[in-house]
Amino acid sequence: MNLSSTKLLYSLLLLFCFSCKPTKVPVATTGDDNQIEVVFLQMNDVYEIAPLEGGRVGGMARVAAIKKQLLQRNPNTYAVMAGDFLNPSVIGNMTYEGSRIRGRQMVEVMNAAGVDLVTFGNHEFDIKEEELLNRLQESTFQWVSSNVSHKTGTSTQPFTSGAQAKPVPKTMVLEARDEDGTQIKIGVLGLTIPSNKVKFAEYTDFKTEATQAYQSLQSQADFVVAITHLDIEDDIEVSKQNQGIRLLMGGHEHTNSYDTVGTAIVAKADANAKSVYVHTLKYNKTSRQLSIQSTLQSVDQTITPEPVTEGVVSKWTGIADQSFKELGFDPHEAIFVTTEPLEGRESHMRYEPTNLGKLIAKAISAAAPQSEVAMLNSGSVRVDDQLSGTITQYDILRTLPFAGRILEADMKGTLLEKVLTIGMKNVGIGGYLQTDKAEFEATQGKWYIDGKLLNPNKTYRVALSDYLLTGLESNLEFLKAGNPDILHIYEPDASNKSDMRNDIRMAVVAYMRSLRK
Ligand SMILES: [Zn+2]
To answer: Boundaries of each 5'-Nucleotidase C-terminal domain copy (predicted)?
Structure first.
């Protein structure tokens, strides 16, 4: 067969094929359009696995439902937790299977909820080294930290996480790919406030680390985002210095905020997953343009909880409820409805008298009706949150996780004055005192007890949390039995269940119930 006949045969074959088969019009394939959309679901400062305010807000199973829904719409969805989730919590202080729970409940819930990425918050270092190492090992989500590492003896190395004990990286690169084949790389760095200094953690300067991490990611990724747990001023500072970090998903303040800094965004959601941020990032590979659209979404009763996560949450709340019942509490009972938020954030409790501090001090007074003045160390309040709306017994349990009794002491006016003055100067620490019936008149520099000038020669009956009488509180080491200016200590009647001094939490519950009437 010569060339021309081959051609002819070919043409005939083609003709035959076209005539006998249904005509197939070639469809223009979409192909890679060089545009891609990724979604970050951001939460921060979550201590509670179950909803709060009588079930109205928050709840990790609801967050899981949001993640699932976002993931169905876009497989390139990442759930981020920007620090503070292992502590404090009332469940965390309980014992289960022979050891303190200490955030194990939260890791299990976060694993189920499909959290992808986290960084350390200051509260992650409240728990013991061994406890933190266990939580890291149990987590199936990815940790990233540019400025915190593990100190053992004289050496420092990254913390490790997951069953395989993989080193927690300083930076990481996420690879996203959409249906039409557009692929991008997203650089991620993590920064933590160095406020909670512990022996087993080393903090390097977060500003220097941010710049270094950003510079190393710049060459590897299409754009860079950060997960941070810093004071907002520092987030803004980091953002100003590294304008290429386009989105800083932050935490620590507990109230939502959204700041635009040049071309970057600094976002924080509300604590305890009362809200989450949903950031939609659209990237054009050709123009290298990134647009970010953020929505603050309320986590409330309109969201049906995701059942698997809900199951894990129920397991842990069941364990906790059982322990509370054994102690005589009904965690679900609504005891009060507050019209204004009760301020329990450490950034307030340890710096100024707050309405929550006052309320607890008044509850101490009510439990010890013969007392003339009442006080508590603000460090006994660990909720680090505002209590809003319906207050349940559980809210009181999480507010005062250390429990303890109320004691009364007959003390000389000179000692009372000294205690109150030091308590007022203990700014920023747990030894800052919240009081009832004690007022400091700043212009005179004098204390008033129940409206009367404090008399140094008088003996006062003072009601206080038992911890304050141990001598363990900062700068109040002299405040303990044996101090010659303490003339008598009154203990609660352990056999009398109606003696509210036996448990400060019972005293607060009873007092709040009485306010309702
Ligand atoms: Zn924090």
So the answer is: 344-473
Are both 271 and 161 inside the same structural domain? yes
- Quote the ligand 1 centre to 195 CA distance (angstroms): 9
Distance from residue 25's CA to the centre of ligand 1 (Å): 61
pLDDT band at 403 (very low <50, low <70, confident <90, very high): confident
What is the CATH number for 399?
3.90.780.10
Phi/psi of residue 64, each to 5°? -60, -35
Q: Are residues 133 and 271 in the same domain?
A: yes
Amino acid found at 382: R
Q: Which of 67, 82, 78, 141 is nearest to 270 (CA)?
A: 82
Cα–ligand 1 centroid distance for 45 (angstroms): 7
| 5 occurs within a structural domain | no
Query: How remote is the CA of residue 324 from the centroid of ligand 1, in Å?
Result: 27
CATH number at residue 261: 3.60.21.10
- The residue range of the domain holding 44 is 35-310
- Whether the CB-CB separation of 186 and 176 falls below 8 Å is answered with yes
If you measure from the C-alpha of residue 135 to the centroid of ligand 1, how many angstroms do you get, rounded to a whole number?
18
The predicted-structure confidence for 408-419, as pLDDT tens digits, reads as follows: 999 999 999 999
Number of domains in the chain: 2
Tell me the C-alpha distance between 175 and 130, whole Å.
Answer: 33
Tell me the C-alpha to C-alpha distance, in Å, between residue 416 and each of 243, 373, 399, 441. 54, 10, 26, 15
Percent of the chain at pLDDT exceeding 70: 94
Digit-coded pLDDT (tens) for 153-165: 899 999 999 999 9
**What number of other Cβ atoms are within 10 A of residue 422's Cβ?**
18
Give the other-Cβ count within 10 Å of 403's Cβ. Answer: 17
Asked if residues 299 and 42 have their Cβ atoms less than 8 Å apart, the reply is no
Q: What letter represents residue 412's amino acid?
A: K
Centre of ligand 1 to C-alpha 369, Å, is: 37
Distance between Cα 271 and ligand 1 center (Å): 10
Mean pLDDT (whole number) for 399-412: 94
On the question of pLDDT at 265 being above 90, the answer is yes
Residue 11 placed within a domain: no
